[in-house]
Amino acid sequence: MRLFEASGWGLRLERRPRASRIMRIVSSPLAALAMVITGFLVLGALGKDPLTAFKVFFIEPVSSLYGIGELLLKATPLMLCALGIAPGYRANVWNIGAEGQFTAGAITGGGVGLFYGAFLAHWALPAMLIAAVLGGMAWAAIPAFLRTRFRTSEIFVSLMLVYIAQLLLSYLVHGPWRDPAGQNFPQSPPFADNALVPTLFAGARVNLGFVFALLLAGVSWWFGSATAAGYRLRVGGSAPAAAAYAGISERANIWLAMMIGGGAAGLAGICEVAGPIGLLQPVISPGYGYAAIIVAFLGRLHPLGIVLASLLMSALYLGGESAQLELQLPSSVSGLFQGALLFFLLAAELFINFRLRRVRSSRARVPAPTAA
Amino acid sequence: MVEQLASSGGAVPRLVLQGISKRYGDVIANREVDLRVAAGEIHAVLGENGAGKSTLMKIIYGVTEPDAGSIQWEGAAVTIRSPAQARRLGIGMVFQHFALFETLTVAENISLALDERVAAAQLAARIRSVSERYGLPIDPQRLVHSMSVGERQRVEIVRCLLQSPRLLIMDEPTSVLTPQAVRELFATLRRLAEEGLSILYISHKLDEIRELCDTATVLRNGRVSGTAIPRQESNASLARLMVGTELKECHLEPHEAGAIQLELIALTLATEDPFGTALRNLNLRVRSGEIVGIAGVSGNGQKELQAAISGETLCEERGMVRLCGQQVGRLNPAQRRRLGFGFVPEERLGRGAVPGMDLADNSVLTGAGAGLVRHGLVQRDAARAFARATIAEFSVVCESEQARADSLSGGNLQKFIVGREIRLAPKVLLVAQPTWGVDVGSSLQIRQALIDLRQAGVAVLVISEELDELFAICDRLAVLAAGRLSVGVPSAQLSGEKIGQWMTGGFEAAACADLEHAAV
Fold this sequence. Notes:
Chain A has about 375 residues and is mainly alpha-helical. In chain A, about 70% of the residues lie in helices and about 5% in strands.
């Protein structure tokens, strides 16, 4: 494809003979850099001093121990959800409903904590974690079943189930689960101390969930590179016909990918409600499950990449909050940064398989043909 | 700015290429290629796959521009920048894979491809007149999906002829035709040449070139390795120009076949694909130590038959396919593999191998049962060793076992896949189009490997379009046409003529009773 042509030379977008290894590694950092530059151009156009804005956005939020704790705290659900959906994305199983599985996990795990917390004593937290993982899996099982049984698109089903899960939570905290002592606020009673995910260190809110996320990153690395199940997922995603040829069951792949995604998102959900929030309320996530999709791709579906990408995405959330407070910018500014990030990421991906080349224009060189 | 060439006596050649070079990245597709085509000449462009034939034709047809070199069309220097311009100059091209819409009629397809607007009634009349004049009978109102491959090719040829070209490029035109259809095509081409049309005939089939073409330009590794008058050459001397070394022929030792290892019993299979072919009552037996070939043009149920035998499509009844004495019609491919089944599919990249994975990982694809997966873990070291051994044994040209499958040439990847399946020690091996797009040297190697398997007592079933190949390596041959399978007859008792007749459906399908006397 010829992109641009002037007298004597032009630019041409051409397919690389081999995918570029370098671009594969630098495409994500490059996209992040382009996002930061664009962001500050926009802030500059709004009349904010870019340097101040940079400080407010990226430095101030993490300049205290508490701030660093917040960074890790917000990275936790992003990391868990993204690590959960990434194996599926490698396998062509497009679970985009992590937000719903997150909510389902919060409901089941939270329900166990609210109603059996006292009875279970110090087993309360493990039971809640397990219930949350199972809850997330159950929610993901619906699109998995419909896809394997009726060939429905898991993309739509998992997405629509997000709203159902949110409405279910809303119904519960407005109705049956509402705290009688809560002055009619739509929220559950707070979790008892034995039903809370413990924080990692004093003076910050980051909790055990972050450790779970790091563990999951390690396990997922091992799963993807060493296990036969991980291999089958990769084959199913990159060459469905080869998977059929090898006798790899598409059905098993879909179930496995959906269960990993649902379980991880459910775990993220309970770590959030039994962590910083401390109770169930109608809104428990600023869209972690959706942002995790960007995180997964920004991390190139690789566990290490996802760990780094979730830290960056978390920094964007914190920066957005801080900019809202100090620069009087609308809250949509972090959405803008997220959108720009995804946009640049997709653009940078193009250069893994394509390159720009300066060409001399043949039109200027060779005489025009004569029509026969 | 037309530059008239001083032609030193004789007619001006229709097309002259001088010093054409083209590179794609690091790959040099054409290097200083010269080519000269006279008016009314049938000129063969001969070469192995990857020799640069297709690139050269794309340059002539204006699909790609050369990096260097000049093109003269009827004495005038030209730059051909697009196929539309090539057609205006008078160059037509019939592609190997037809670009026809199955749901449209012949006339509609042709009208879509024409550069000018023509009224439907007038176009139909023109199609009729051209098709009658050159012995290419087609009905303009027929829907393409109901037409055979040979008929579709006629549509493409007529489409080109409607624009009264003076040069016709034909890319591997006979790869999909029955022997009879090839003969008809040659008669048409000769008539066209007599009327002054120049034809560039791309092929790697030496017999055809010797029969049809006036001159031949042979390409090897992107360069012209020689020109020849094919009628004065032997297959061996042409092959030497093409490959650069002497070739030896395969030899089939007489050999006693053993027990029945693969059996199809009244295999009937509906197809979900509206343009697929349903299989109707197929019966076949393959014994250990014999190679059975299934001839026929692709699209006659070949794809469906492969899927039914491999297990990618499950049969309605488990008794329809028997493998090593067991009823496997309802088993999946992995289960059939465990019973000793091996399969080389015709589609290498994407089915036989995962493009983005390296050769070690691609060994795991079918080698899981052979110790490459243990306790649910991929044995990476074992997989690498397996891939290394396959590469060495089948002289696969690649960087290492860590080269991605899509970095290999088609022939080398095919050698790897054939090697992988053979090294997994199957009792029954199904091979589809074993040497499709594979160069002459590698083809020979693959055929020899299949013959060695036969000697070792493996039951081998080969599905191929290449009759020469089937005759060279098969003990028995059957024909699959329109979803029906003929009886299997010893190859020695068959002629190409007979097979050709069968390929158009002129046979009694094999019934269970026929099998015994056929399987002598």
